[in-house]
């Protein structure tokens, strides 16, 4: 039973991270390469404060880690397998229903 609880916790954390479009964009960028927060904020077109809040969420979910680089901090995916999981999930969702979006569904029916 412990494995089921652990699996549910892991999927819930991943789902929470993916529930926000900005966090999805951050994960997609970090899938390509590690990045410094200032560079992420600029490339995503969001404030550093807003980015910081989303990075904190992703850290709390265990999906990204910080790596000290001199006096700066760089962010990267916590595990390379996360990049593969993002690719697989994106491909699977597009293959199943590429014409659907949660915006088209009632909130009570959507994840």
Automatic annotation (TrEMBL):
Q: What Gene3D superfamilies does this protein's entry cite?
A: Winged helix-like DNA-binding domain superfamily/Winged helix DNA-binding domain
Q: Name one GO molecular function term.
A: DNA-binding transcription factor activity
Q: Where is the HTH arsR-type domain?
A: 3-100
Looking up InterPro entries in the UniProt record yields: ArsR-like_HTH, HTH_ArsR_DNA-bd_dom, HTH_Metal-responsive_Reg, WH-like_DNA-bd_sf, WH_DNA-bd_sf
Give GO BP annotations, semicolon-separated.
Answer: response to cadmium ion; response to lead ion
The UniProt transmembrane annotation reads none
Q: What is this protein called?
A: HTH-type transcriptional regulator CmtR
